[in-house]
Amino acid sequence: MARTLHLARAFYRPRRAVPDMHVLDTSITRMRVGPGDLDIYLHVNNGAYLQMMDVARTNYLADLGAFPVLRERAWYPVVAASTMTYKRSMRLGERFEIATRVLGWDERVIYLEQEFRRGAAPVARGWVAGRFLHRGGDRIPAPAVVAALDPSATAPGLPDEVATWAIAVDVAHRGT
């Protein structure tokens, strides 16, 4: 419940936009492990990582100053697929950060990497394939979203391992 409230706060009272932030820049979200994040083994539950990533992606949008643009167009983000790799455990009270960055996009989705770090040590890494939908139900092409948020952005080459994953989980653009 605590992370749900954290997400609601990040959405309804977003942090200020970062001046000159671009779509391909990294957004940093700092957090601390709370009691609601723990499982029976007293380390962060795997599901809690996904909730923390929701908060960090919301902060990324806030850093871009995206909320007015999205509201005006009646667009909202959804997760089409995600995968996680865990390297170290996190325990109650530990501080950490989540670095969120866009890896690239195709016609359908925007691919993000979200890395959890405790100091300089990587803790976990997630890949997220995100889509944007219109309140009316239509899917918004990823290039249109990127152009609305950062008209100067050009798509970088998607890392091969992410492209392979996107095909495996059936979210990659299939061509025409």
Number of helices: 5
The CATH architecture classification is Roll
CATH level 3 topology = Thiol Ester Dehydrase, Chain A
List the domain count as a whole number.
1
Q: How many strands?
A: 6
H and E string: HEHHEEEEEHH
Residue runs with pLDDT of under 50 for 5 or more positions: none
Give the biggest sheet. Answer: 6 strands, antiparallel
Shape: globular
Distance between the termini: 43 Å
Give the helix level as a range of percent: 25-40%
Report the CATH superfamily: Hotdog Thioesterase
Portion in strands = 25-35%
Q: Can you tell me the CATH class?
A: Alpha Beta
In round numbers, the mean pLDDT is: 93
Class from helix and strand fractions:
alpha+beta
C-alpha-based Rg, rounded: 16 Å
Q: Main attributes?
A:
176 residues, alpha+beta, Thiol Ester Dehydrase, Chain A, 6-stranded antiparallel beta sheet
Written overview of the protein:
With 176 residues, the protein is α+β, with helices and mostly antiparallel strands. It has one domain (2-168): Thiol Ester Dehydrase, Chain A. Helices cover 31% and strands 31% of the residues. It has five helices and six strands; from the N terminus they run αβααβββββαα. It has helices at residues 2-12, 46-64, 67-73, 142-149, 160-168, and strands spanning 27-32, 75-86, 95-105, 110-118, 121-134, 139-140. Strands 1, 2, 3, 4, 5 and 6 form a six-stranded antiparallel β-sheet that branches. Helix 1 (2-12) runs parallel beside helix 2. The radius of gyration is 16 Å and the shape is globular. The N and C termini lie far apart (43 Å).
